[in-house]
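Escalated from tier 1: adenosine-5'-monophosphate-propyl ester holo job.
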Amino acid sequence: MTSATTDHDTTGQAGSADAVPATYPPEGAFIATANAGAALYDRAEADRLEFWAEQAGQLHWDQPWTQVLDWSDAPVAKWFADGKLNVAYNCVDRHVLDGHGDQIAIHWEGEPGDSRDITYNDLLAEVSRAANYLTELGLEAGDRVAIYMPMVPEAIVSMLACARLGLTHSVVFAGFSPTALRQRVDDASARLIITTDGQWRRGMAAPLKAAVDEALGGEPSSVEHVLVVRRTNIDVPWTDGRDLWWHDTVTNADADHQAQAFDAEHPLFILYTSGTTGKPKGILHTSGGYLTQAAYTHHNVFDHKAGQDVYWCTADIGWVTGHSYIVYGPLANRATQVVYEGTPNSPDEHRHFDIIEKYGVTIYYTAPTLVRTFMKWGREIPDAHDLSTLRLLGSVGEPINPEAWRWYRDVIGGNRTPIVDTWWQTETGAIMISPLPGVTATKPGAAMAALPGISAKIVDDAGAELDHGASGLLVLDQPWPSMLRGIWGDMDRFRETYWDRFANDGWYFAGDGAKFDTDGALWVLGRVDDVMNVSGHRISTAEVESALVGHTDVAEAAVVGATDATTGQAIVAFVIRTANAAHSGDTLTAELIAAVSQEISPIARPREIHIVPELPKTRSGKIMRRLLRDVAEGRELGDTSTLVDPQVFEAIARG
Ligand code: PRX
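Tier 2 regenerated the structure:
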């Protein structure tokens, strides 16, 4: 049996003498106005496809579909295939046409303290200008555009302008290195990169456009232009003819633009994510099904009420959470939302709570790693603020431990708010497993149940369904509207990664371990493959290993994710030096940390690097990561009998 990589209290019991509830049933006042009711499960159960058709019907379609799902080319799904719509029209124009143009779409909060309120009217004008200018640049539907930007409004405008024109965007997290950017730009053959001069990081302007220049130096690339938003005013290197200022071009373009409808299966975006090999996977999402599920989940899981709520998802648009729950889901549902540019401790640890108070945030969606960081900073900080506007809290990115769950509810949620622990992935496009507020009695730490319209099973390696109480592999046994449609340029890898494992059953293998407890609540236990989850960021061991062996002093490297109290997992590396290595000790360690930041991103920096004479290998040459995890987590070594040379590694463990 493959085991999950993280251990959690999965009993659902408090386990201590203090009488804390084991479950949190929905409260009357919340139930009375909740968007979702228990009937939603029944409707989906009665006719799944009809249920999804109903959800899709919430969007504006220029041409209605006749077939909800075409699964004949499985595992490539076609949802609403002969329907046509424009994603940006659904997120912007229709709200203006419905008379809500003056409603604030985005309360944007810049890191240095500047802010902008952007109405749906403003958003429409900006997206139209950008669409007109991108057209003038000669970009055509189907072309790819890379977006490498911090959390500025123009990043959202750029995504929507692409969607409006049928251009496929590929957002690259602005914390990624030039090497990582280049890899992604090349893989998608992007014709344009949109970026900023620099980005604010804890009061300092850090260069960003310079990273684009570095990425594009050397070999010629597919990129014809670099469009640059001025954000920090730092000096930037400039290539005439290639580089264009946003304020000289987009800002002067016509603010009227007629959106044209595209096929429901038109590619909307590619988003790269780590897999078990060194090369990131370009996850492909399309339009109609994706927008349907993003909007449906945002409406029901967050109980979002247009015109009333002030919603805040703290993710970055560089990740899928930012795509589905900052851009597409909320804007399709006419949300008023906060978008914040900086880190939670700029200028100090009060920042998020200041923002919640300033805008009267009602729905707050963040990651467990931040909750645990808040816990570390101490409850005096949130306690100094009026957080009484909050009425719902969300969690995403990694399992939330019951202790953090309770703290989140008590301290941030005033022991009042429901918490939705939402499980999903870049590949699933939208939330799949989560409580429904107003319906589900939640257990701290459990993602509870598949949403109406979604079907999940927990099975053993052979695909047999497991009894309640047993841990196994999480599979999705029915197609869903926002599912990935492939890996860009590598459909074989798409089949191998997700579908070959349970090919006979036609199930999607998520790569996570999970269990139903004896009450039938679903617990997600963590990855079962060589993917680490650091602060909710997916990082592959192979990617980090390849960055480490790229250093001339390193002969071999093995990387594992070790349990970490704040970040969920932390990266621990073991390296063997080459015979004539120039460096050792702290010098080498520092160089290796720099190499990983340079190759991938500072988010992939190892917490520890152990320089060792040997790695634990089986006789067939496979590195035994289980033993490395034992060392990294300070445990007694497990079974070493299959090692070539158990003594060497036992010495490492002792040392
Ligand atoms: O291991 C699961 C974990 O994050 C992985 C997906 O990562 P990514 O594609 O980067 O998307 C993150 C945001 C959706 C999953 O395979 N994960 C995500 N949410 C949860 C989770 N693990 C447990 N509980 C969650 N709520």
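Residues 1-17 have pLDDT under 50 and may be disordered.
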